[in-house]
Amino acid sequence: MTPSVTDWSKIDSKLDPAAYKGVENPTKYLYFSNNDQALIDPVFAGRLAKYAKDNGITIYITSNGGKRSYDDQVKAFKASGGYQDKDGKWVGGNGSAAVPGTGWHEIGFAIDVDKTKKDMPELRSLCADEKTEDQKELLEYGLFKPMTPGNGYDGINGNPEPEPWHIQPIETDGIKKPDRFNLYGNSYSWIK
Hints:
Elements: E1 30-32, H1 42-55, E2 59-61, H2 70-79, E3 82-84, E4 90-92, E5 111-112, H3 121-124, H4 133-140, E6 143-144, E7 149-153, E8 160-162, E9 166-169, H5 177-184
Parallel strand pairs: 1-2
Antiparallel strand pairs: 3-4, 5-9, 6-9, 7-8
């Protein structure tokens, strides 16, 4: 059974809680449409909640846009056209989902803002592109949008569009896929 949001205290964060201000009880400002997705890093959750509190908003996170299990990542990767070859290696996919075992969602260092709510004025900034003042403001909270390819297509050769709704802690900037679990994964070893 997956622990609930109230079990955030059991997660040993790899982020420095003093580096950026956070909110002690993020549940007041973060709404997860699926409680199993709520097990993001507690310091990351606090930073998101601080941003929400300071901007007078609630951040709505998609049903698969918080913490993902390995099995959920497999489903997402397969839905993107990916598969395992005869040697068991993950191949293919259209870029809209990370290869299982390499995604930030799997280790609780990513959320996807519910873009169906982006018509709400207070959420527009969270779904805006990287060139906005809002992206700069996120940096002040220890958050950023990597603007990597994600869901949707640009219509040109089927290339995935950047995901302006995807947010991560600033410490994850520039870390390559093979290094993600080495640096952060053992924080989540208690979650199976």
